[in-house]
Amino acid sequence: MSANVESMFSVREKPWQGLETIVMETSSSEDALKLAGEKYMIYEEFKENILEKIRDFYGESADVDTIKINKNNGLSYEGIRILHRGAEHKIFPLIRLDALYEAYSSSEMDMEECVKKVCSESETNEITESMEDFVKRIRNWDFIRKSIYPILLTTKDNGELLEKLVSVPMLDLSVAYIIRMKIEDGTSGNIKITRQIFDEFKISPEELHRQAMENLKKDGYVFCEIEALMLKILNIERFETEQEDDEERIKAYVLTNASGTYGAAGILNEELLRQFAGDQDYFILPSSIHETIFVPATDMSDKETFDNMVAETNSTVVDVEERLSDHCYFYDGGTGKIRMCA
């Protein structure tokens, strides 16, 4: 599978949101959607023009259209879908239109080169037999149940996406579910479970959640002290700091899973949190959808400091699509429950 442009796959009858391969993503620029002078087309004009030229290229052999893909936190993009008539398979590469427009508006490619790019990606991103077989079997609950995991999304920024997903509320977050796709040909990725997919399973929402939580417990979640983690990453023995007294240092711990993907869901595992925390209270900092940070809660007045830290990190470091929340949470060591900070 080519990594030159983000691809996903859709079925002929209805698009399956989120069935995507892990590839390089090029984000669209708001500035690129503005007029850059008479030399360049606005986005909608570019869209109509490139679709017309692609349709001319394929003639009667393929249907060409665009579909909208909803991403996390209110983000979305349009993708070009080329459906070859008479093809036996029912999934097809989807090529990002915003990435093409950005390349066009920045003079990296002219219109002819953009058309060639789309047609080339359509031909080279072939659907393998193992991928086709996986999609056929994805509706089979017994086949797919061991590959289902919970994920956490912020509720307020995902209204449109959550309308299409199976989810349950957790404080100001939502627990949704994914299928981890690992195919023999090396293709991997995550498929968010839509209501359409869920209906094929013929099970209850409670059964879906129970299975996801069972799989979560086997997903290689670990707590790692941040300083130890950084030392390992940097391959050094210690940091040179003025503060040498270990007892004076505030220790913080990262919780994530073995894959490092959607690892923030680890806070759903009450048994794991109890084993780690005992009766100690912690602030939980949602650093992204992939991990959380636990800091001992010795003074509730620290809440504002940590809230500001989360908000600043979101605005300066974390991609919009990977943000989980703009404030911290509180783990009550007495009850073993997570709640909003008072």
> What is the count of β-strands?
14
Radius of gyration: 23 Å
What profile does the largest beta sheet have? 6 strands, antiparallel
Low-confidence stretches: 1-40, 231-236
User: Beta-sheet strand percentage?
Assistant: 15-25%
Return the average pLDDT rounded to an integer: 82
Order of helices and strands: EHEEEHHHHEHEEEHHEHEHEEHEE
Overall 3D form: globular
Total helical segments: 11
Overall helicity: 25-40%
Please list the strands of the largest sheet in the order they lie side by side: 9-10-12-11-13-14
How widely separated are the two ends? 48 Å
Structural class: alpha+beta
Can you describe this structure in just a few lines?
The protein has 342 residues and is α+β, with helices and mostly antiparallel strands. The chain is built from eleven helices and 14 strands.
How would you characterize the overall build of this protein?
There is one protein chain. With 342 residues, the protein is an alpha+beta fold. The protein is built from eleven helices and 14 strands. A six-stranded antiparallel β-sheet has the order 9-10-12-11-13-14, sandwiched between helices. Strands 1-4-3-2 form a four-stranded antiparallel β-sheet. Strand 2 and strand 3 (76-84) form a beta hairpin. Helix 1 (43-58) packs across helix 3. Residues 1-40 and 231-236 have low confidence and may be disordered.
